[in-house]
User: What shape does this take?
Amino acid sequence: MKVLACYNIKGGVGKTTTSVNLSYICANEGARVLVWDLDPQGAASFYFRIKPKVKGGVEKLFDKKPDVYDAIKGTDYLNIDLLPADFSYRNMDILLESSKKPRSRFRTILSALEDEYDYVFLDCPPSFSMVSESVFFVSDALLIPTIPTTLSLRTLEQVLKYTDDKILKKLAILPFFSMVDRRKNMHKLICERPPKMGVKFLEAFIPYASEVERMGIERRPILDYAGHSKSAKCYLALWQEIKERLKL
Amino acid sequence: MNEFLLPKSIPKIALKENLVATFPLEEDSPRTIHRYYRDTFDWRLYKKGYLFQVDSDNTSYELNLISLEGEEPRVLTMQSQPRYIEDIPSKIWQQKLHGTLNIRALMNHITLSLRQHTLRYVDKDGKTVARLYIEEARLPQANGRMKTLETRVRIVPVKGYGKASTELSKFLKKEYKLKPVKQPQFASAAQAIDLSINSYSNQLAHPFSDQDRTDQALKALLLTLLGTIEVNETGTVEDIDSEFLHDLRVSVRRTRSALSQVKHIFPQRSLQRFESAFSWIGQFTGPTRDMHVYLLNFDGYQAALPKKMQAHLFPLKDFLIRHQKLEHEKLVAAIKSHRYQALKQSWRIFLTSPCPEKTSLENATKPIKETADIHIWQAYAKLMKRGRAITEACPDEKLHKLRIVAKKLRYLLEFFQNLYPQKRIKALISELKKLQDVLGDFQDLSVQINALRDFEIQMKEEGALNADTEAAMELLVHQLRGRIKAQRKLFESRFSDFSDASMRTEFKMLFKKVGLNRTL
Assistant: This one.
């Protein structure tokens, strides 16, 4: 089972659309996929038309012997399941902080799912916290959608510094450009010559496009309602490149 | 399982209307599909607890790997029907199935023509929380006619939304008095066409009793072998999997071995005719089998070469595929020929005709146990004598002949295994098999070296051999020669294991009879 986390400390950069669309592509390739909506705002749950509700809340999930299966919901797609968001996730940090082994909490939950799924996508909340630290610890790769602007690059630098500080040698860091508007000179320049930050940006990028925004109305992955669109093709290219980089 | 049989008295349209009026259901367009239940010829996936179901509307193929043990199903859509594991465009599926399918082909065991109506139970957010399928299925029978199966109503819950499917299920039980059906669709279909699932076996375990007359017992055994030959004919002709031809040939070899080893049971004149006929089948099926073997070995050949040279071997693969097709055409013509069909017919007549009560043939009326004891003991004695004569200096030919002697003993042990204590006979077969493996590998390597040499010449003649391919094939031959030497060394230790005192005692105790003076 591979764990891929969509993460950025900035909000609104395309983490959830990435989680949802990549999980859909992955499932279409015959993999069994779980999306864990870690963000209390519950955007991934919304896209899959699932109530952001976990019975017993985060306390139940972080039980010593968690029954995570009870919380999992099937989506409209046969190979994709969702562990929904819950409003109590806003307290996840506090719970983890007070825990003796905060990092092992996530590991315990994911280990129980090892035989069930081939991929887990973690749709992360935008923050530096105990939650993100736990995510880094259990993930095989961080997928970091980055808008090609100076401020976004600065936050990416912060993420890189943060992950570099920790003992996370096996964690693959895969930043890619998201919400790219080629009409904007700055976007164009940054995409063509990404700054040297010690990690290689993926070649594939996700454009700023109305069909991506339509996801909020359609409440489905783009590939399900606009499979031939440019954005859909970009997500396919992104997944292809991720597989190559991670040798999946 | 939430599955029900829908009696003819309940029209499906009325049922659908009632369901839609009662629950928040959305109907998808009905679809006409073919549903294939595929597996290897010997049901490897089923044995591992999986059903491989493919639904197709002729434009795409939806693969469903359904666990019989409650694992979540897997779904994958592709544009063609997969035959081999490498045809499935998903690494994950390939990894999951590799250990089970290996090189074996998938084939249709059951084909259903299906009209499927789908109703989705949808919640306030437009989310599907349960699915209800009404499936009308028909399947072709051996006589070419279509048989209609009972219509099924299947409710599939969505994980985490059990309530909706329970409501639907309760409704069907209460309103229509439907009862859940335990037998799944594929099992009903198999039953309808008399297909026994997971029944294929090429193992011989004939239920003799000690006092059966040898001629009658042998005829029964040979009739079983004829059955195996016939069972494998369609798969051989359609070239579904190389294993069909392999099993057909094994049954032919077993038949020939039985006829040649056990003498004075059937009239000599009849036997000679059949012996030469089965030898002919062995001959015309040989070249295709050889090509199958080289193609099956191809990946191994490639892996044995340095990475840089591996691609140079592809012209050999093309050559093998081309010639396999040509040889297969000849084989199909031979199987469909009057000569082959007439042979089988007269063989069946011979085997099913009653044995004469009195006969001058000295072994015909002997109890089968006595015949088995004598022949197994003699074959064992021959193997021991020839095995001991093998020295480091003796020519390869002697090892090849020893392999044939060992094979004959193996067949005898397998033919008559039910006459002896199972545990003890199986232990002997297992030890003999180890010796046979070394002899077989030794023989295979010699044959492969010669064949590769012949292929080089043929490929040159056909203009299909370039310098790189020639160099790769030469290196391969060189490597195979090295393995031959190692195999010959291994023989000494295997034979020593096989001929140790405990094995000799066991063979003696089981098969040696007073009056047979040959000592070992």
Remarks:
- The mean pLDDT of chain A is 89.
- Chain A has twelve helices and seven strands.
- The two ends of chain A are 11 Å apart (CA to CA).
- Chain A has one domain: 2-246.
